[in-house]
Each structure stands twice: as structure tokens, then as C-alpha cells.
Design goal:
By secondary structure, the protein is mostly beta strands. The chain has 3 helices and 17 strands. It folds into 2 domains: 118 residues, Lipoxygenase-1 (Sandwich), CATH 2.60.60.20; 160 residues, no CATH class. The chain is 11% helix and 43% strand. The strands form 6 sheets. A 4-stranded antiparallel β-sheet has the order 4-1-6-7, with no helix packed on it. It has a 4-stranded antiparallel β-sheet with strand order 3-2-5-8, with no helix packed on it. Strands 10-16-17 form a 3-stranded antiparallel β-sheet. The longest helix is centred in the middle third of the chain and has 17 residues.
Length: 323
């Protein structure tokens, strides 16, 4: 890891202290470092004063938590009013961790763990993907009216406005990855926290907004066999999913959710048993839809040129009356 500098800015409120203070920086890359803020007889946090410290260390990521403790006993919460503490890393000064909760010391040397109110942000990558869930084939065999035409009604979900992702928001790092650690950090503090629940909440918000951008309508769609053809419909059940993923120093959070379900229809119509449609034969589609009974053997392309077949076709189309 490259070396960076951390600038710690401490603003004291109405009450100052001359106690020696240690601070522990806990970063999102799984590293931590302890520093001395006040460690000499002449060092004081004066009331309404701002003190600035700079430390050099390896890159520990965004500072998500700090632990503060006095060196020695005797500091109580009403002895020092820590109004605000900010930590800024040199690699991105625009992203600063801010802590505004006053530590409540109890007179001993126990550390006080404080979580940042805001700190280094990172984007939760999210988008949509269309997935095929199932595929089936429906057939309507009515060559030259030899079989009764059939129809099947189904609901089709129509998407009017296509959903697009515009990544503008940023999610706090603490809301976007799973941190699980339970270890003594340099003898100062036990850290144990899990943020997976927080990313789920944020992701739920993303999904809700995504659904609001989609205009969904339901209509009745008729599957009807074409007159004089053996007609097949390939029906694909589809899902649109929205997904999000963040990979950080402590682990990975990955979630997805179905935004909608819909169907895609492809119509294939054979006018003869030996015709090729879409590089497939009638036999292949017949097998795909598991039609009961043998595959038709007529009419062939040659049969369609015979006068008797032409007369039947003309009658079906209403262009010729029977003799």
C-alpha cells in the first residue's frame, strides 16, 4: 500500500482539556493506526479552539470509525467538549470523515468508539439484466383447413418506458459493504459490526425508484393459427432484474431483485411440411412442442402447386366460391 497523509482537525467546544489523548483510525481497507494527539505537558485542547494534526501512514481507505481514549485515568465527559473531529486523507481531500458526537469518558482509560456521520463515498454499481426463465412451444396445425383452428389467450406485460440506469447517487461506504471483525486492535478496542442489512435497505430504495420509472400495462394477446399453415409460437418467459454489487476491503455485498416478468413471442408458420423456416424443419418444432400424434406428411411444397390445393386455398381466402 502506498503512503498517504491523514489530517485530523479537532474543534473544541465550551470546555477544553489538558489530558493526553490517543486516537485510533479505523479504515475501510481493513487497516487501522493509533496516533497521539496530545502527549506533552504543554499540549491542551483550549475552549473554542481548532487543533490540526498530520500523520503519515499506509493507505487504510476511508476512515469509517475512530476510537478515542485518554492516556491515564481522570478524564470525564464533562471535562472536554469535543465539538467536531474531521479526518481527511491526502489521496482525496474532497472526501472527509466527520465525527460530531462528543465522547462520554467515564474517568477511566476505556476507549470510546465513534462512527462517522459521513465519510468517504463509493458508488454502488447497479443496473438491469433481462434473463430467460423458461421457453415453450405452442402449435396450431390447420393445413388447408383439415383441422379446426385453435386459439389460446394469455396475458402479456407490455413495457412502455424502457428502464435505464443513471448512476448519480453515491452511497456511503458503510452502507455498501460487509464489515465483520472481532479482534483487539492494538489492545484498544473490540470492533465488530455488520453492514449487510444497511446495503439491503439502500438497494430496496433503488429497486423502488426503478419500478417507478416503468409504465406497465396488461393486455390480452391471442395466439391464433394461420389459415392453411401449421403455426408454432415459441414463448419465452423473461424476467428483468436489477442488481447491485460492492466489493470492499472487508468483503462483498451482492443483491438482485426481479423488477418485472414478461413474455416474448416468436411466430413460425409452415405452409408445407417440407418447408424450412428459420433454419429449422417442421419436425423440429413438432418435437419441441410435444404435439401428440404423428407429424403431418402433407401438403408438400409440390402439393401446393396442384390445382386441387390451389382451389381449397382460394376458398379459405374468400377469393373463389366452390363450384
Amino acid at each position: 500500500m502506498s503512503e498517504v497523509s491523514f489530517t485530523v482537525t479537532v474543534t473544541t467546544g465550551a470546555k477544553g482539556t489538558n489530558a493526553d489523548i490517543e486516537i485510533l483510525l479505523i479504515g475501510t481497507k481493513g487497516a487501522w493506526k493509533e496516533y497521539q494527539l496530545m502527549d506533552g505537558p504543554g499540549d491542551d485542547f483550549e475552549p473554542h479552539q481548532t487543533n490540526v494534526f498530520k500523520f503519515y501512514e499506509k493507505d487504510i481507505g476511508g476512515v469509517s470509525d475512530i476510537a478515542i481514549r485518554p492516556r491515564g485515568a481522570g478524564l470525564y465527559h464533562d471535562n472536554w467538549d469535543m465539538k467536531e473531529l474531521k479526518v481527511t486523507a491526502s489521496y482525496d481531500p474532497s472526501k472527509t470523515s466527520t465525527f460530531i458526537r462528543t465522547p462520554r469518558f467515564k474517568g477511566g482509560a476505556e476507549p470510546i468508539l465513534i462512527r462517522a456521520n459521513e465519510y468517504m463515498n463509493t458508488a454502488l454499481r447497479h443496473g438491469t439484466v433481462n434473463e430467460e426463465v423458461a421457453v415453450r412451444v405452442v402449435s396450431f396445425e390447420n393445413f388447408l383447413g383439415l383441422n379446426t383452428m385453435e386459439e389460446a389467450a394469455t396475458d402479456e406485460l407490455v413495457e412502455v418506458d424502457k428502464y435505464t440506469v443513471q448512476q448519480t447517487d453515491k452511497l456511503n461506504t458503510k452502507n455498501s459493504f460487509e464489515l465483520t471483525a472481532a479482534t483487539k486492535i492494538e489492545g484498544i478496542v473490540d470492533v465488530s459490526a455488520t453492514y449487510r442489512g444497511e446495503i439491503a435497505t439502500e438497494f430496496s430504495t433503488i429497486v423502488t425508484k426503478a419500478r417507478e420509472t416503468m409504465d406497465k400495462k396488461t393486455k390480452t394477446f391471442k395466439l391464433v393459427g394461420n389459415p392453411g399453415f401449421c403455426t408454432f409460437y415459441v414463448i419465452r418467459d423473461m424476467e428483468t432484474k436489477v442488481y447491485g454489487e460492492f466489493e470492499g476491503g472487508f468483503g462483498r455485498a451482492k443483491v438482485s431483485q426481479v423488477l418485472r416478468k414478461y413474455q416474448v413471442y416468436t411466430q413460425i408458420a409452415f405452409r408445407a411440411v417440407d418447408e424450412m423456416v428459420g433454419n429449422k424443419t417442421l419436425q423440429e418444432y413438432w418435437d419441441a412442442c410435444a404435439v401428440s400424434g404423428p407429424v403431418p406428411t402433407a401438403p408438400t411444397l409440390a402439393d401446393l402447386e396442384k390445382p386441387e390445393y390451389r382451389r381449397v386455398k382460394e376458398m379459405q381466402e374468400g377469393t373463389k366460391q366452390p363450384a
